[in-house]
């Protein structure tokens, strides 16, 4: 891909992105045809060849996708990894990958869409990151509808969709268009993030794992005063304080759109009870219990450093890329280092948590769309479909047999090369041979857990009512509705987050909460809520 001029700003306006995306096909009649037919201008691959690998081709595909930070420890590009090389060997298809810089994927995605230099496929969140969602992206002729291509060239994914009607429903727009090759989570892989805390510190201070807001206050205060923690609680900041509604959910609201007990969509940040959650976080911040620099934790290095330097004793983090990684490194520094899961906190003892992290089987965040710029959409689809074959699924989940895994009692098991490397932990080693996130069929037998604490964590974190209250990320507003959302939501999200940080840090008094709510409503939050409600209702009727 071409390099962008330094004069182009990273903070490109969403309105410009939408306008640019709409003009992507103006210069090319072939893109126009591709957008309408879903097949492009290439010669269709005979249906009899679908599902057969390796493919006999000299074409090179291009793919834009996030690279796992752990893989960057070894290679700068997915093509250079053992996984990338094996995928090319198995499929017979060479791929040139482009990776956005860590922490800059949103900005670089916007620039990419606004350019006239799209790759063949893009792995991203087409439901939420593209202004207007997949219907708009198809209408703008940025990505292809995939119905005919899946039907004729993707027998592996087609079979899965025929077998699983709920998954099939998730992958369509309301008008019935397939638009991505999905990341499909196994049933035991839906919960993978939650509160965790230093158990060795709790034992030393004779404290129990906290379950309520009051107990958390006691623990964090002890960490600060008796362990010298400068940031007793920390978390990663990725456009918002990423705590998966821990603490906030205790007040029966969420820091996002959610579904209430009556099945109605609501925007949590303007709920009256959201003010109570802000008041709590503000108090904790003022008392030094929350990382004073939480809004600066935008990269994993700063986050890791706080968890491993005894600056922090608690967070909301990932099962493998968080707890497992920190336990592996932490124990090398101090054999007593121990992290354990804590339940999503509630106000009352014994109450079930209102919301928390729980994914759906279809994860749109790491799914691939085929763009209208694809020279050979059929080839791109055949390459993508390999991940849903039996052999392809093994590669994506476990890597290369004999190197990264072996079969033991009929079960794939990671080798000592992966699990017992003297320098690198499991999460780092496994990224060389597999694709931890992306469009493929997840395998329930896969586990990156190396500690019992990880095995126990999922059972603790899944004790929430998140399944009732998390709004699916893959509902699809109509093109007209999407235009409204595109105009409204970016401004709301920006203002909400600006005020969230100011409220928590004490830079704005909570007396201004009503004014803040009024302004968000004036921006059009009620319109967006109704659009999401209508889209949610349509999804439930598919």
UniProtKB/TrEMBL annotation:
SUPFAM superfamilies: Periplasmic binding protein-like II (SSF53850). It comes from the Bacteria. Residues 1-26 form the signal peptide. Residues 29-50 are annotated as: Disordered. PROSITE patterns: PROKAR_LIPOPROTEIN. Residues 29-45 have a biased composition (Polar residues). Keywords: Lipoprotein, Signal. PANTHER family: ARABINOSE-BINDING PROTEIN-RELATED, POLYGALACTURONAN_RHAMNOGALACTURONAN-BINDING PROTEIN YTCQ. This is Lipoprotein LipO. It comes from Paenibacillus konkukensis. The gene is lipO_71.
